[in-house]
Amino acid sequence: MYRYDEFDSDFVLQRARQFRRQTERRLTGELSEEQFKPLRLMNGLYLQLHAYMLRINVPYGCLSSRQLRKLAHIARVYDKGYGHLTTRQNVQFNWIKLEDTPAILEQLASVEMHCIQSSGNCIRNTTSDPYAGAAAEEIHDPRLYCELIRQWSSLHPEFSFLPRKFKIAVTGSPRDRAAVKVHDIGLRLHRNPAGEAGFEVIVGGGLGRTPFIGKTVRDFLPVQQLLSYLEAILRVYNQLGRRDNKYKARIKVLVHEMGTEAFQKCVEEQWEQIREGGLTLPQEEIDRIGAYFAPPAYEDLSDSVPALETTRREEPAFDAWLQNNVVEHKQAGYAIVNVSVKAVGAAPGDISADQMEAVAELADRFSFGELRVTHSQNLVLCDVRKTDLEALWRRLAAIGLATPNVGLLTDSICCPGLDYCSLASARSIPVAQSISERFADPGRLRDIGELQLKMSGCINACGHHHVGHIGILGADKKGEELYQLTLGGSADENTAIGKIIGPGFDAEGIVDAIENVVETYLSLRQDGERFIDTYQRVGRDPFKENLYASDQGR
Amino acid sequence: MPWVVIANRLRDGIVVFLAPGGGWVEQIAGSRLAGNEREAEEMVALGQQAEADQEVVAPDLIAVEERAGVIVPTKRREAIRATGPSVRTDLGKQAED
Amino acid sequence: MPLIKGGERVDDPWISLAEGAEIPPHGPLIVSLQQWRDQRAALLARADTLGIRLASDQPTSEIADDLSHFELVALEFPSFGDGRPYSHARILREILGFEGELRAVGDVLLEQLHFMHRAGFDAFVVSSETALEDWRIAESEIRVWYQPTADGRPTAMMLRRG
Fold this sequence. Notes:
The complex is a heterotrimer of chains A (554), B (97) and C (162).
Chain A lengths: L5 H22 L5 H9 L3 E3 L4 E5 L5 E3 H14 L3 E4 L5 E6 L4 H10 L16 E2 L14 H11 L14 E4 L13 E7 L5 E7 L11 E8 L3 H15 L10 H8 L1 H15 L8 H10 L13 H9 L1 H10 E3 L5 E6 L10 E3 H14 L3 E4 L5 E7 L3 H10 L14 E2 L14 H10 L3 H7 L4 E4 L13 E8 L2 E8 L11 E2 L6 H18 L6 H8 L2 H9 L5
Helix pairs in contact in A: 1-2, 1-4, 3-12, 5-9, 6-8, 7-8, 10-11, 14-16, 16-17, 16-18
Chain B lengths: L2 E7 L5 E4 L5 E2 L11 H16 L3 E12 L2 E4 L2 H8 L14
Antiparallel strand pairs in B: 1-2, 1-4, 2-3, 4-5
Chain C lengths: L2 E3 L2 E3 L4 E2 L12 E4 H6 L1 H6 L4 E5 L17 E6 L6 H12 L5 E6 L3 H10 L3 E3 L5 H11 L14 H6 L1
Parallel strand pairs in C: 3-4, 4-5, 5-6, 6-7, 7-8
Antiparallel strand pairs in C: 1-2, 1-8
């Protein structure tokens, strides 16, 4: 993974010291809350319901064991012993003190981490494929470009006061695990007929109040031109994006209102003026950054491990874990291991300091000391020898992180909701927990198959409900929590926005409703169909009829 | 309907309530209750002063009711602030009783 | 209000033409875009130097063809969060090649000075009475730069490449 050099190290330390000064000015009253708020937000510090919340960037989801140990330390010393993995591959702590924050930022700087631009109307942490560099079907490793974007976007003098926040995602696989079509900019690496690498540039996707699927503005952008093209897009957005209405300020609205063609023309005109400038990436620089992401020292191993087959026959739980949580690796004899942070009845994505330390240990022992945070709020050990899988599984099981449910119904995405978030309308974690308990039986879960449940506690859609196969949106109706159901969304290479199915449900009713939807699917599915396939074949009506036929609809 | 003033303490963000005598307490049980609008206005002014003095952030007047002798905010959001996350009853004020 | 230029607090020789006021015969004069459009001939007839002030919603294209007439361009920041003038500044410097004074006016806070300087501004009208100290703090805190811009500071990439 990327390692800071002297420039990067100085930079994050300078930024941490700057925040120390700003915090001191706030505490002495030189800065009012109104003046201080944008400054703390640009360092990832929010004020939530119970305390300050600190959002720490995990650059494109890549984390070293050393960094994870530092996060465990922060959880213990400065928080209440746990942290939360977010849908943007970041880590959040919920009980942070303002007066401790400068010290925390300095501690993070010591392990090459920071909170710069994890909030605010600026370019946020770039997200990517959690299997980057290891996925069998990968065309090109996206991480080096994510790192180039990270550096280019850090304290960008032109783009630190955008109309609204700005999120970029990059994937290098045909299988999209980074949801590139629902980001402000999505970049899909591919190769042209001459074998050169380039990006499909997708702009104007997003969720929130008005979900949009991004539009392709360029089929092939040579990698050397990545930053100049991004700069052209951002410059158009910074000048033309709406600033009169917060809810219409994202680039998706600009692209929608201008029309894709007009927007594209504007960007190309801007780009023509700067493409030959200082942002063109020299091949040596691409190679230099790329070298940080060179494959680890894989051993020459056989891909077939007979002992695995024996154990999985004897241990059904191991078999289930292999089937659901372990993914094919590009390197013979290795596997990608998903660490489920979705134990039955647990808060999705919440991980204790003890678990962090234990996983860091496992990363050192079994996966070259590195791990990933995923968009679906889990962790990944990317480079595990197949011969180590059983040992790893036993250790993960011992710390509650081997639930064999990755990609299944109980591997839900869920925002913190009204239990923590000051923007939330309704709680989301308790609903996720109830659903997780209702569908706890691994056999039943596996029979239901791949099903993405995504839940948000308010219209801002941090839980990505619009693109869940099943989505739940929490609302407040006259003081009562109300949960609305959407069906048919998808965040992969076939991105789709789910449709609202009908009137909402209360907290208990929504769990029954999910079960009802699942039963409808099971009764209608044909050979090998996943939930989303069946939904796309039969449409909304059969689900709706079954849901509201009985008296459980409210 | 009685009211209390809720805020977050500036230096640590912890939820606090305006107390009789003008200080701030961490438990809603110790908060000053406004029984009429005039008193509520006075308490709002005290909250704003405390914000100007860098003591608290975002003071807010919220409606409460008494249930079985306990003061409870009427809105769920504020009730959660007064107790702690409903999904982690081992944390927050509810754990300190 | 204090004017910071070249790292010093300096006197401001420029005056701004108030709305509806008569054009003074002498002295460096800053006019609004509307005044420039309405009184172009009279303004050009003066012997003294001319500057123009753009609101944040007035793009640089409005003055691109007239730029040779101006020795100063003032860009207004109506609020902390309105970041359009940063783009306008870079376009003026890096694309249109403007070499005169680029002045930040309006809601100009310490925390923005560094971004402004990097984007091409070289003069700042700051409301704070500790303006010069603010400027020095802003310039001293962050000393690593990742983006090539008109200020010519070497980026981390340039320094790495030697």
